Amino acid sequence: MMWLTLGGGFLATLSTVPAPTAECQVVITIPAAYAHLVVPRPPGQESAAPSRSPGSREVKRVITLPAAACTRLERPTSIGRDGAPAKPAPSRSHPPHPWWTTPKLERITVKPAPERPTPSTKKNPRPTKGEAAATAALARLGTPFSWGGGAPSGPTRGIGRGANTVGFDCSGLTLYAWSKAGVTLGHYTGTQFRQGRRVALSDLRKGDLVFFGGGNGDPTHVGLYLGDGIMIHAPKTGDVVRKTQFLKSSYYRSIYRGAVRPG
């Protein structure tokens, strides 16, 4: 609520509803003698006009209000010093007392509130092939190691010492994982070592294949990189698919052979 001091202890009220995103301007007409009590006198924003009382003049002031307040300026109310409605204007036989005069208000302009931008509805980006392969491998944590086991369809019964176990060997796990990303790999670490682009250790991404062992020949073990130096792999007979921090392992770091990005 805004209060306009007219002097003599009387206040004119303007009821407003705060609306900080939009404004309107109104003209308020008051006796000239009290104009300095409302707003300063900036050049070009006031005009004088004869009042109903002989010998007095009126001035207009431009003030800025929240836009919502403009809808409530049709019937401004004057109240007295005790909070009760001020005395009504006297009859025509008595000149109106300037302190009882209710300010005359005219609406000039309304600035519409700026439109708020529509929140972006970005769709989640599709996972990369490497991320899809990593997700598929992680879903097989705890699956038994089976020599020769594993196919694009999932864990299988192996061969030799894995003939009685349904599971994955190391290359069987990686070929299964990458098949879920739409990439076909051979069921042999030496073949997979040549099925993709070589990447440096510092450039590893999720899903890259990391190889170990074999000296100068074909690698003897493969895992699938997950990030932060961790791989998921099927280690050996009697073990299960697990995650290993190979970059901090003295064993795996000593036999590391390189990495390949399939697809």
Structure description:
With 263 residues, the protein is mainly beta. The chain starts with a strand and ends with a strand. The protein contains four helices and 15 strands.
Q: Secondary structure elements and their pairing?
A:
Layout: E1 2-7, E2 10-14, E3 23-31, E4 48-50, E5 57-66, E6 77-79, E7 104-111, H1 129-138, E8 156-157, E9 166-167, H2 170-179, H3 189-192, E10 197-199, E11 209-212, E12 221-227, E13 230-233, E14 242-245, H4 250-254, E15 256-261
Antiparallel strand pairs: 1-2, 2-6, 3-5, 3-7, 4-5, 8-9, 10-15, 11-12, 11-15, 12-13, 13-14
Helix pairs in contact: 1-2
In short:
The protein is mainly β and 263 residues long. It has four helices and 15 strands.
Name the descriptors.
263 residues; mainly beta; 6-stranded antiparallel sheet; 4-stranded antiparallel sheet; rod-shaped
Main sheet: strands, sense, barrel: 6 strands, antiparallel
Strand content: 25-35%
Q: Please identify the oligomeric state.
A: single chain
Q: What value does the Rg take, in angstroms? A: 42 Å
Give the CA-CA distance, first to last residue.
69 Å
Number of extended strands: 15
Helical coverage, percent range: 10-25%
Structural class: mainly beta
